[in-house]
Write a structure and sequence with these properties.
It is a single chain. By secondary structure, the chain is an alpha+beta fold. It has 2 domains: about 10-75 and about 120-195, ph1033 like fold; about 210-325, no CATH class. Helices cover about 20% and strands about 25% of the residues. It has 7 helices and 17 strands. The chain has a 5-stranded mixed β-sheet with strand order 10-4-3-1-11. A 3-stranded antiparallel β-sheet has the order 2-9-5, with no helix packed on it. The longest helix has 18 residues, at about 310-325.
């Protein structure tokens, strides 16, 4: 709680292994839309409270926001800490393109990871849950976005739990949620007790990097479905032009931004784009649905310069033609 007795607000930073340079520990078990893990070695760890607003940033982008519903605590937990071999400080980092790869910011020593001093320490572990109040980001917001920077209460860029100014955070919530309304940053305390009685257990598994891919598509195309034009941001999803399970990577020129229902039909090969005419084609089984039949033969709602990779469009189109024949 802040000095006025209101819930506080926090920016919680999650970093993937690929983005994490500070390596005194092996990272934390986090799940962006469900819980955030931390321990007593983390600055501000004992200040966060139930009912506090949390905005989660995952690597480059804000993932969404919610309100802390309850906090698990484990005392006397064991944690491996890896220390600089010269000054025994934890402020060292890994450099991906230099040898030796370890560099201590406290004493400037350089070393290989095999030279580190490893200690097992007792810490208090915490896990803050917020799944029931989570609002997934509808728009891309980067770490340097002025809305996020203006909402920060301090100039801190090092700690993973950073205070936000409750009086300045509403415009950020408005933009991230895509609601078009100024949101109240505080959750009424009475609702916290209600929420705590309804913990969620289901966890949705996300494709690795899918959120970032969606934001990349939104930055490329705007809040615009390639089949139907301008749409509310909450309805838009990034559609791969190839099977992600067989090719688990995100190509900037390998996707379309589609309204959720069209995305499902596109993945099912019931809607495709002709690579020669760049017009939409629908499967015969959709003829009885006026909403979807209406786009059959329509031009793609994209400028020619924004069209994705033609070979990937053609690959999807060829696969769809087989489905079209089977569904006729």
């Amino acid at each position: 709680m802040n000095a006025l007795g209101r819930p506080s607000a926090w920016l919680l930073v999650m970093k993937s292994d690929a983005e994490r340079s500070w390596a005194a520990n092996r990272g934390y078990d986090d799940s962006a839309g469900i819980y955030y893990s931390y321990d007593s070695n983390v600055a501000n760890c004992r200040r966060i409270r139930e009912g506090d607003l949390i905005v989660v940033r995952s690597d480059e982008y804000v993932a969404g926001f919610g309100y802390v519903e309850w906090i698990e605590r484990e005392d006397n937990a064991l944690k491996e800490i890896r220390l600089c071999p010269v000054c025994r400080h934890t402020r060292w980092r890994l450099r991906r393109s230099m040898v030796p790869s370890g560099k201590c910011d406290s004493c400037a020593a350089e070393f290989e990871p095999s030279e580190l001093i490893v200690e097992i320490r007792r810490v208090t572990k915490f896990r803050a849950y917020y799944a029931n109040t989570w609002i997934e980001a509808a728009r891309p917001t980067t770490r340097s976005d002025p809305l996020l920077q203006n909402a920060l209460a301090t100039a801190d860029t090092f700690n993973s739990m950073r205070p936000l100014d409750v009086d300045k955070v509403a415009p950020l919530l408005d933009w991230v949620s895509g609601t078009g309304a100024v949101l109240e940053p505080s959750l009424p305390p009475v609702l916290v007790d209600v929420i705590r009685g309804g913990h969620v257990s289901a966890i949705v598994r996300r494709r690795r990097g899918q959120r970032e891919f969606r934001f990349l598509m939104m930055e490329r195309f705007g809040e615009r479905c390639a089949f139907t034009g301008d749409q509310p941001p909450q309805t838009l999803e990034a559609a791969h032009l190839y099977q992600y399970a067989r090719r688990p990577e995100h190509h900037p020129n390998g996707g379309l931004l589609l309204r959720r229902d069209y995305h499902a039909l596109f993945d099912a090969k019931l809607i495709a784009v002709n690579p020669d005419s760049w017009r939409i084609q629908t499967a015969p089984m959709l003829d009885r649905f006026p909403t979807y039949k209406s786009v059959d033969g329509a031009e793609l709602r994209l400028e020619p310069t924004l069209r994705p990779d033609r070979e990937l469009i053609a690959e999807h189109y060829d696969e769809a033609q087989r489905v079209f024949r089977l569904s006729a």
